Each structure stands twice: as structure tokens, then as C-alpha cells.
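Bench notes, afternoon.
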Amino acid sequence: QVQLVESGGGLVQAGGSLRLSCAASGSIFSINAMGWYRQAPGKQRELVADITSGGNTNYADSVKGRFTISRDNAKNTVHLQMNSLKPEDTAVYYCKVGASATGWAEYDYWGQGTQVTVSS
């Protein structure tokens, strides 16, 4: 099985920065896309950013210019650098990884979520 462990969440004032990390471990043959999603209370989970195995990135319009996603394939990790944080960024952030343990079927794996709270 594949496990994802997230870290880096916390409480920060508006305008501050946080860096989220997500490390994948377990039985992994390959990892394809990696990404970050977030969900605020009473709202739908939304894509924040993702990155392909080739390094192509995609960002939600609301975070463009403020957030940066990156990955370290050697360590099976993905990071989300969040700058100029706003109160509306407050949410639980989830890491998602598309991975295969066999080299055949690929499944989506989710991290446990980490709380990001931005105070005004």
C-alpha cells in the first residue's frame, strides 16, 4: 500500500508564508501526477496545484503568483510553497498522488490533511 504523510501546516498571519510537504512511501512502482487540494468547512474540495512527472505545473487562478508546487522524485515528495497568504486560504490541505504498486494499475492516494489557518 502507498502512504502519504503531510507536514508543514499551521497558523500564520495574513501576508505570511508556509511550506507544505508530502512524502509518499510504501509499495511504489511509479508515481505520476502529484497535487494539492484544499477544503474549507462547508465547501467543496478544490484543486490548488498539481505537477506532472515531467514537471509541468497547473495552478488555481486564486493562488497563481503566490503558491509554487515542486517535487523531488528521488524522495517521492511534493511541496507547496505558499506566500502572501490570505484569510481565504484557510482550509485543510490534502496531498494527492497518482501511483502504481505494480506498474499496471494506477490509483489515487490521499494524505491525511493538514490544517492551514491564516489570521487577518
